[in-house]
Amino acid sequence: MRKNIELNIPEIGKDGFATTQEYVYERLKSAVMLGAIQPGTSLTMRGLAVELGLSPTPIRDALRRLSSESAVEILGNRRMIIPTMLSQRFEELVALRTTLEVHAARRAMPYISEVLINELIKIDDEMDRQIELQNHDHLTLLNQQFHRTLYTANPNQTVMPAINSVWLQLGPFQRQVIEKVEKYYIIDRHKEIIAALKIRDIEMLSSAVERDVFDGITHSGRELLKAQNAA
Amino acid sequence: MRKNIELNIPEIGKDGFATTQEYVYERLKSAVMLGAIQPGTSLTMRGLAVELGLSPTPIRDALRRLSSESAVEILGNRRMIIPTMLSQRFEELVALRTTLEVHAARRAMPYISEVLINELIKIDDEMDRQIELQNHDHLTLLNQQFHRTLYTANPNQTVMPAINSVWLQLGPFQRQVIEKVEKYYIIDRHKEIIAALKIRDIEMLSSAVERDVFDGITHSGRELLKAQNAA
DNA sequence: CACTCAATAATGTGATATCATTTTTAAAAT
DNA sequence: ATTTTAAAAATGATATCACATTATTGAGTG
C-alpha cells in the first residue's frame, strides 16, 4: 500500500499564484522548510499529483526546482527522497550557512535605514510573542523573515538563492531537533543584530549573525546527531 | 523572422547522458558558461526544441533548472532571457564568488593529499599550454576544473551548487570581457594556490584564492563596465 | 521459514494536444 | 511617416498518452 505523505501544512490556497507550478512549489517548499515531510520519505510525482488533485506536470516542475535547490535528492533509480541528515553534511551546512549569512549581512550594511531597523524590530517583537506560545512553525517563518528582510535590504544581493537552499536543507532536520531535543531553548540573538545595525558596526554585526546561526541550530543539532550515533 | 540563437558549442553527443533533459541542460549550461549565448537573447522553449530536434518537454526541464540557478531570467511575461550584466550586480557576484570560493578552499584543506596536489598541478600545466594557444573556451573549462577539483576534495562539501550558479551568472559577461578588453592578461594565481596547499597554510590559501578571483575577472570586468557606462 | 524469480503494478521520461495569454504582423487611420 | 488597432501567429502552462525502466508482489522452491 502507498505510504501517505503527510502534508499537514496550512492550505495556502491556489489564489495569488501566477501558475499552478508555483503554487505546488511554494506548498512543498514550506512543507520541507517546516519539516512536515519526514527525511527518508520518498516522493512520487503521481502520488503528489493525486494528493493535490493536479496533473503530474506542475508537480514535476516543482520537484525539479526543489531538487535544484538540494531540498530533495534524486536517487540513481530516479526516485526522489527528502535526504536524511548525517553528521558531516550537517557540519558543512552550518558552516556554509554561517559564511553566507555573514556575507549577506555585511553586504547589506550600507543599505540599512532607520525604516528597515524598525521593520526588523517589529518582526523580532512578534517573535518574542510566538516564543511564549511555543509556536515553532510560525517562529521558523518569522526567523526567516527577519533574516531575509535584513539581507534583501541590499537591492542587488545575489546571495538569497544560496541561503534559501541551505535553509531548505536544514529545515527537516531542524524540525527533528525541535521535537527530540528536550531543552530546546530559543536564544534570541536578534537584539544583538539590531544593536549592531543601529551603531553601524560591521564587525559586531558579523559576530552577532554568526552567534545567531550557532545558537539557533548548530549546538542542539550536534547534540541530536551525537545521540543518534550512539543509538 | 525568428532570430536564430547561436549554439556553436561543440556537440557533446547525446550518449553518456541518462536522460534527454540532462543532455539539454549540460549543453545549454556550457553554452551559457562559455558565453555562446549573448546576454539579452530571449530563449523560447519551442525555438530550442526545434533547434535541438526534441520535444519541448526536456527543454522546459533544462530551462527551469537553469533559471533556478539564475543562469536565465524569467521575465514577468513568462519570457526567458540571458540576463545582461550591470555594474552593481557584477560587484555583488564577484564578492559572493570570492566568499564562496575562499570558504570552499578552506573547508577542503583538511582533505588535501599529495595525489590531489599532483592532479591540480597537471591541470595547471595544461592551462599553461592553453594560455599560449589563446584558447579561451578550453581555458575557462580547465580553470573551472582546477577549482572544482580543489573544492570537491572535501567529500561532504555542499557549496558547489552555489559556486556553479555564480560561475553561470558570470559566464556570459566574462566572454564579453575577453572579447572586448584589449589587454586581457591571464594571470595565473594557481601556482600560489598549489604552494599554499603544499605547506598546508590556510591563510595563504585564502588570499591566493581571493587574488585568483580578483585577477581573473574583477579588475577587467570593472574596466569593461566603466567603458560601457561612459558610452 | 527464507529465498528465487516471474508477472504485475507503478513510476519517470518524453511527445503530443489544448487552451489562455502574449507577441508579432500588417493594414488602416491620422 | 507615424501611430493605432485588429487579425494572425507563437508561446508557456497544463493535461494526457505511450513507453521503457524500476519496484512490488506472491507463488513456487529449497
Give an overview of the whole structure:
2 copies of one chain form a homodimer. The first copy, chain A, is built from 9 helices and 3 strands, in the order αβααββαααααα. A 3-stranded antiparallel sheet of chain A has the order 1-3-2. Chain A has helices spanning 20-33, 45-52, 56-68, 87-108, 114-133, 136-151, 160-180, 190-198, 202-230, and strands at residues 42-43, 73-74, 80-81. Chain A has 2 domains: 20-81, Orthogonal Bundle (Arc Repressor Mutant, subunit A), CATH 1.10.10.10; 87-230, Up-down Bundle (Four Helix Bundle (Hemerythrin (Met), subunit A)), CATH 1.20.120. Chain A is 66% helix and 3% strand. In chain A, helix 4 runs antiparallel to helix 9 (202-230) and helix 5 (114-133) runs antiparallel to helix 6. The two termini of chain A are 30 Å apart. The model of chain A is unreliable at 1-6 (pLDDT under 50). Chain A is mainly alpha-helical and 231 residues long. The first copy, chain A, binds a DNA duplex (30 and 30 nucleotides) through residues 2, 19-21, 44-47, 54-58, 60-61, 77-80. Chains A, B: Residues 18-85 form the HTH gntR-type domain. Chains A, B: One of its GO terms (molecular function) is DNA binding.
C-alpha end-to-end distance of chain A: 30 Å
Q: Residue ranges of chain A: pLDDT <50 for 5 or more in a row?
A: 1-6
Summarize the biggest pleated sheet of chain A.
3 strands, antiparallel
Task: Give the domain tally of chain A.
Answer: 2
The CATH homologous superfamily of the largest domain in chain A corresponds to: GntR ligand-binding domain-like
- CA-atom Rg of chain A in angstroms: 18 Å
Overall average pLDDT of chain A:
90
Broad structural category of chain A: mainly alpha
If helices are DSSP runs of H or I spanning 4 or more residues, what is the number of helices of chain A?
A: 9
Total beta-strand segments of chain A? 3
Strand percentage of chain A, roughly? under 5%
CATH topology of the largest domain in chain A: Four Helix Bundle (Hemerythrin (Met), subunit A)
Order of helices and strands of chain A: HEHHEEHHHHHH
**Oligomer description:** homodimer
* Helicity level of chain A: 55-70%
Strand arrangement, major sheet of chain A: 1-3-2
Q: Quickly name the level 1 CATH class of the largest domain in chain A.
A: Mainly Alpha
Main interface by residue count: A-B, 30 and 30 residues
Annotated CATH architecture of the largest domain in chain A: Up-down Bundle
3D shape of chain A: globular
